[in-house]
């Protein structure tokens, strides 16, 4: 399995990610103030930091990766979360493109509703796997964090984003 995502765990700030909307931020698990902490649901190996939506209604991070020629199977996973009973959420998508840039396939994880989190502040794992669509040359990985309802904080959260492929 070859990991294609750079800094999917937010431990290097926003390194490797391009901000394409809003103002995404990196938050620390020791921030307090109601943000997810070390004792809240989340990855066992969560490090010190995670991605958050900042104070804009929609914050989007993206990275495009070149698929190895022999990639045949993929697996994508991410820990996605939110705050208490708010519907703010994070959505991770992987779009496969061919050499001409034509979409060949799309995989989407999340966002989780507050109900799916049982109104708990924290992050929960979502995964998908499948066959790389024939002709795919690149994959565009997009993390969208969306504010819903009141307040200024965009409480879509994400950590441990992974996109791996393996050859035939
Ligand atoms: Ca982390
Ligand atoms: Ca909020």
List the helices and strands and how they pair.
Blueprint: E1 2-3, E2 18-21, E3 25-28, E4 49-52, E5 58-66, E6 71-82, E7 89-98, E8 103-109, E9 122-131, E10 136-146, E11 157-167
Antiparallel strand pairs: 1-11, 2-5, 3-4, 4-11, 5-10, 6-9, 6-11, 7-8, 7-10
Bound molecules: calcium ion (2 copies).
One calcium ion (CA) binds next to strand 4.
Detail the poorly predicted runs. Answer: none
Biggest sheet details: 6 strands, antiparallel
Count of alpha and pi helical runs: 0
Q: Tell me the name of the CATH class.
A: Mainly Beta
Region (Disordered): 32-55
Organism: Lentzea miocenica
Protein name: Phosphoesterase
In words, what does this structure look like?
- It comes from Lentzea miocenica.
- This is Phosphoesterase.
- The chain has 168 residues and is mostly beta strands.
- It has a single domain, classed as Sandwich (Jelly Rolls).
- Helix content is 0%, strand content 50%.
- Strands 1, 3, 4, 6, 9 and 11 form a six-stranded antiparallel beta sheet that branches.
- The radius of gyration is 16 Å and the shape is elongated.
- The mean pLDDT is 97.
- One calcium ion binds next to loops.
């Amino acid at each position: 399995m070859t990991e294609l995502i750079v800094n999917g765990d937010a431990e290097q700030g926003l390194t490797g990610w391009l901000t394409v909307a809003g103002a995404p931020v990196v938050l620390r698990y020791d921030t307090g103030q109601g943000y997810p902490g070390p004792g809240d649901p989340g990855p066992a190996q969560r490090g010190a930091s995670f991605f958050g939506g900042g104070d804009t209604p929609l914050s989007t991070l993206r990275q495009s990766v070149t698929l190895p020629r022999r990639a045949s199977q993929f697996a994508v996973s991410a820990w996605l979360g939110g705050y208490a009973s708010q519907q703010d959420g994070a959505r991770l998508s992987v779009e496969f493109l061919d050499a001409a840039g034509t979409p060949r396939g799309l995989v989407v994880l999340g966002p989780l509703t507050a109900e799916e989190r049982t109104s708990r502040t924290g992050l929960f794992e979502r995964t998908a796997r499948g066959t790389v669509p024939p002709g795919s040359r690149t994959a565009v990985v997009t993390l969208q964090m969306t504010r819903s309802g009141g307040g200024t904080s965009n409480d879509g959260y994400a950590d441990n984003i992974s996109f791996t492929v393996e050859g035939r």
